[in-house]
Design brief:
Layout lengths: L1 H10 L3 E12 L4 H11 E6 L1 H6 L13 H4 L4 H13 L7 E6 L5 E13 L2 E11 L1 H45 L5 H32 L7 E5 H11 L1 H6 L3 E4 L6 E5 H17 L6 E9 L2 E8 L6 H6 L20 H12 L4 E6 L3 E8 L2
Parallel strand pairs: 7-9
Antiparallel strand pairs: 1-2, 1-5, 3-4, 4-5, 6-8, 9-10, 10-12, 11-12
């Protein structure tokens, strides 16, 4: 019977462990003293293979006889964090979520239950059960991100799309009902407002639709050879009117010989968003420069402006769906942040990176890399 129980324990998919203390630990010590005591005296008396594999070892024999501190490769912070959780419940815990590391330093999560052996206010051992819940935690994080994405999507639809469309409707109604009383200059002004608002709304809608496609994995990835200088020129032309309004010069310094192997539509969207942002946050009578270079990441493309820049705190919030971060342009232009999030998605689909360097009042440079 004993052999059958032993086999059942050792074959279990739930981690089973027994921690013994070489010297029983007085429970009236401070937490700092208890952590030190554990590091020196608490060793794995027995464990099954599941526990060993959770910590990155081949089998139970690789952890038996080691201190817990040795098992996690002397990670003091994690060790003391775990001991603190156990100590808070006087080492008798029930379904407690624990964060720890394997021998390679990878964070993982487990749900623990334990029974301590305490005699005369001294801890002698801890018997415990441990279930690896790392995949569940990853799923929870994905669910959280999905909810954040959904909330942002509806906020943009409810506010950032509705407002400009409402503006167009109101101005159109005004022209319709009072066209005979409006001067030609006023009609021209209203027409320009309608056009500008419609272009911004169309660009936002295009970004939203592409973003939605990335979230549902329904966007195709078709890498082809791209003459980047020509593609940059095409996007400069698309945004020419916006740059002229601010008297901003656009300098395309991309090497004429540079050919990228990438998805044409995605890279075009990335360039258009970065250039549009650069115009939005640039001061009048300034310039924007697009260049390329090579480093260990591969081909690196940069879009640099001479605009208002981004604060250190603001830079940390860029490219994040959950940040809700946006800034007004130098002429009060509004943004949603969705363009940069889309840029990040597209560049990561190319196995590349995107990052930013900026200083308030001194301009911003966005970089993205495409591996060779």
């Amino acid at each position: 019977m004993k052999n059958n129980v032993t086999k059942l324990v050792h074959d279990s998919t739930i981690g089973v462990f027994l921690i013994e203390l070489r010297k029983p630990m007085p429970l009236n010590l401070s937490l700092k003293e208890k952590c030190k005591w554990f590091r020196e005296n608490a060793f794995v008396y027995d464990a099954n293979d599941t526990v060993a594999k959770n910590y990155g070892y081949k089998n139970r024999y690789e952890v038996i006889g080691k201190t817990f501190f040795e098992v996690i490769k002397f990670n003091t912070k994690i060790h003391d964090e775990v001991i603190g959780i156990y100590d808070k419940s006087n080492y008798l815990i029930e379904n407690k979520e624990i964060r720890t590391v394997d021998q390679n330093g990878n964070i993982f999560y487990h749900l623990d239950n334990s029974i301590p052996k305490i005699i005369d206010n001294h801890l002698y051992s801890i018997f415990g059960l441990s279930s690896n819940i790392t995949e569940i935690k990853k799923f929870e994080q994905k669910l959280k991100e999905a909810n954040t994405t959904k909330d942002k999507f509806f906020r943009i639809i409810g506010h950032d799309l509705k407002n400009p469309i409402s503006q167009v409707v109101q101005i159109s109604q005004l022209i319709e009902t009072k066209h005979d009383k409006l001067s030609s200059e006023k009609v021209e002004e209203y027409a320009k407002t309608i056009k500008d608002s419609s272009i911004r709304t169309l660009n936002l809608l295009d970004n939203l639709l592409k973003w939605a496609m990335t979230q549902t994995n329904s966007i195709s990835f078709n890498p082809v050879d791209i003459k980047l200088k020509i593609l940059v020129d095409e996007n400069i032309e698309i945004l020419k009117e916006l740059s002229l309004e601010k008297k901003i010069e656009m300098h395309n310094n991309i090497d004429e010989s540079l050919i990228l192997t990438a998805d044409h539509n995605m890279i075009s969207t990335v360039l258009r968003n970065l250039l549009s942002n650069a115009i939005k946050y640039s001061f009048e009578n300034s310039s924007i420069t697009i260049e390329n270079s090579m480093d260990s990441k591969g081909n690196v493309i940069s879009v640099a402006d001479c605009g208002k820049g981004v604060s250190v705190r603001g830079k940390e919030k860029l490219f994040r769906v959950d940040s809700g971060f946006f800034m007004l342009g130098t002429k009060g232009e509004k943004g949603t942040g969705i363009g940069l999030i889309l840029c990040k998605e597209f560049i990561e689909m190319h196995k590349g990176e995107i990052w930013v360097e900026s200083e308030e009042g001194k301009g911003t440079t966005f970089y993205f890399s495409i591996p060779k």
